[in-house]
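HUMAN: Mind sharing a backbone?

ASSISTANT:
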Amino acid sequence: MVHLTIDLIAKSRNHFKKKRGLSFPEYLKTLTHLHFSSKNIEDIGDLSMCRNLTVLYLYDNQITHICNLGFASNLTHLYMQNNNITHIDNLSNLQMLSKLYLGGNRIAVVEGLEQLSELKELHLENQRLAPGEKLLFDPRTLLSLAESLYVLNINNNNIDDIRDLAVLKELQHFSAADNKLHNMEELEDVFNHWPQLLQMDLSGNPACKKPKYRDRLITVCKNLEVLDGREINELTRQFLINWKASKEAKKKKNNTHALTPLIPYPLTNDFNMGQGPHPGQIYSHASMQKWKPQQSLRAQKLKIPMSGLLNHVAIPSAICSHMDA
């Protein structure tokens, strides 16, 4: 079992020349970058003498737990992809951490990042999950990253729903390729919450095969520059936005016309036509002959002929047939 310790650093040829002119403890205090990738390291030991460490490369090892990094309050970049890590923990003291690389591990739940207020990039692609398992997100972690996270990579993690990610309103680069995203309406709703989005990759998802997939996302993401590796032409975007606006305006107009109420019978009582037949009642021919509309005083004063008056009153077709008879 290989442990990353001060002794291992001392034995490393990468640091041999740098030690000349300085004692080893003095050198460790000046150390800012530590390269120990592909060394079969399984555990992180006591590195507290490297108090000014800012970048730590530990990718392509056999590490199972993140530990003993509490001293590294100046750490800004941590590369631990392609290890055997199952949980994200022991990072709360890394207040300056801005880029975290954890792709290719065995992480099932994204959690333990609540204290990382400076985190701008989070890379979690290609987790080696159990069959049927998908990458999940702790709502507390997402909420804590809402104001800081600019880049999120969750490629190939069996994810079928990203609605919980809507709180990440500062995202500029989003990669979720080779997942199981399929609901276009849900995707559009999430992307409406990301006004800063510039680049996005959803290739390899079922949603990509939906009609008008690319057109719909371009109209939703107003500042998007690259979608699935293809640049977006600004003229194309404006055309699609104008076309969508025109289509919605036409739909709204049609709905307004459909909802316009019909004027009930009788049309008006301004002429005081007297007691007439009820439009919902069936009348015999004899009864219709007895009923004769009487001209009102107002109609008489206006000298409107009775025949002309009837032309201004809407009479149901059923009644008209009787009258014609």
Summary: Confidence is low (pLDDT under 50) at residues 265-275, 282-288, 295-302, 306-325. The longest strand covers residues 41-44. Residues 2-248 form a domain with the Leucine-rich repeat, LRR (right-handed beta-alpha superhelix) fold (CATH 3.80.10.10). The chain is about 25% helix and 10% strand.
